[in-house]
Predict the structure.
Amino acid sequence: MMSRYPHIPLGNARPDITRFVDTLMGRRTGQRPPLVEYIVDDVVMRPVLHELMGREWVLPGPERADLEKFLDNFIAFWHGMGYDFIRFEQSLPFPEHQTLIPDAAPGSPKDRAWPDEHHGAIMSWADFERYPWPTVEAFDFSQLEYLNAHVPDGMGLISSHGGGVFEHLSWIMSFEGLCTALYEAPDLVQAITDKLGTLMTGFYAHLLDLDRLAVVFPGDDMGYRSATMIAPRDLRTYVLPWHKKFAAMAHAHGRPYFLHSCGKVMAIMDDLIEDVGIDGKHSYEDAIMPAEEFQQKYGHRIAVLGGLDINILSGATPDDVRARVRALIDVCGPHGRYAVGSGNSVPSYVPVENYLAMIDEAHAPNH
């Protein structure tokens, strides 16, 4: 098969999830930084699977065989790219008001979903009572169980509940509704948060029973360009206690608790490290605080995950991507507790060439 990406070697990966975890927890030093990633959009995955691995993308359908082919492709992708793990997440079904628009990424067949910022599914106590809360007992964990049973030798499974406590709170209430309720109905905010946190606790209890689970790595975007989304005191009241509980559950099972959180969250960073007990932080934007600067400030306490700014990964040339990856490895790598990857995720609009340049440079022998 003639590929547009012939320069990327595949099939030579030697995954080592123990080395990955030990490096990021500071138990091994002098190691080349491993690869890390939060999400790789399937629009990017599909051509890689097809052109470099000779695999056809299969959407998960009602038939068990189609679902297993989808999951096998997922495993093949993470293994073929040289990660030490497969990262996969699922969410309990929390109905939320959304707006759908076509994905603007070239060649993407998908819609993008945006939470309604003005009108939530729960705006009152009556809405709370009518809301169709899910149950953990009815949730289908079979996809996670399949991945757990088919993790390749040397690899581990990294997972979490899809969407964090703050995210689901702000999506269910709408951001505008949440901000209003924090002043007018804080008891309703507390009730919704406690319901979410309790359900997620049950989800994590099941997740942590998976024997190949190596790391709990949730996402909960609590910031934007210049500050936290709501006041730090409100995050400390409603949200962080649940992360503290989830982190304690992970630690009790011998697993690290990493956190992906976008935006400027420095106002709660000490809370996240000292009280919640996160072991690593993911999501960096150079305009807020580059990964190198974050490492100087916090890298002696927690792991630094990723750091390649999405503006570079999506809009620069492959050579520019390589140069930035080299700089991150050269500066952050010697400090230890560092993994190289995107600053946020690999969304659909990232050119495949740029994603592969990041991967290839991270595997380069001189690093």
Residues 306 and 341 are 4 Å apart (CA to CA). The first strand starts at residue 85 and ends at 87.
